[in-house]
Specification:
It is built from 7 helices and 9 strands; from the N terminus they run βββααββαβαβαβαβα. The chain is α/β, with parallel strands linked by helices and 186 residues long. The strands form 4 sheets. Strands 3-6-7 form a 3-stranded parallel sheet. The chain is globular. GO terms for molecular function: UDP-glycosyltransferase activity.
Length: 186
């Protein structure tokens, strides 16, 4: 992924992955090791019904376009690959992706804009301002993950037992008409 200037000098380039290390490790694993099970079944092997990842189909696993895009991007990156994730969350898959791609994988953490302090009138900000500093927990699993009913119940139970203030972002798959009140345990 190097770039050339107007006289043809090659400069190093780095791949920047904005999707999870787990998904990329899974795709690269299937490309390099067809027919061999992914080494972290506890990470990917969840039953979510007929949910398919874009670029994948049920019968073939990963399609050629997705395999090519992932492998070529890794190969063209200069010695390192940058990825938007936390080492604490996806360390195993970052290490495995590094091994598969023969590049150092560097987790950057989240990319967050500077906070907009002109939002004092928002209800959530007013609520937080009434709480003691560092007394509230933010719970979110990102935009690519949907909790199962069991997971929802366990997390809700844990938050209730913790007796801490919390903001919990809960996502449902598109087309799921569940309301949060119906999803949470009573």
């Amino acid at each position: 992924m190097g770039t050339k200037d107007c006289i043809g000098t090659q400069y190093p380039g780095f791949e920047f992955i904005t999707s999870s290390a787990t998904v990329n490790a899974y795709v690269l694993h299937n490309y390099k090791n067809p027919g061999i099970g992914f080494p972290f079944p506890e990470i990917y092997n969840r039953n979510y019904g007929n949910v398919l990842v874009a670029g994948m189909n049920e019968s073939a696993g990963v399609d050629d376009n997705e395999e090519t895009r992932v492998t070529e991007s890794m190969e063209q990156s200069s010695k390192i690959v940058l990825i938007k994730t936390f080492k604490e969350i996806e360390e195993k898959c970052c290490d495995y992706l590094s091994k598969l791609g023969r590049k150092k994988v560097v987790p950057l953490g989240p990319l967050v804009q500077n906070p907009n302090y002109e939002c004092e009138d928002l209800e959530i900000i007013q609520w937080l301002n009434k709480k003691e500093k560092s007394s509230s927990v933010f719970v979110s699993f990102g935009s690519e993950y949907f909790l199962s009913e069991d997971d929802l119940e366990e997390i809700a139970h844990g938050l209730a037992l913790s007796n801490v203030n919390f903001i919990w972002v809960v996502r449902f798959p598109r087309g799921d008409n569940s309301w949060l009140e119906e999803a949470l345990p009573q």
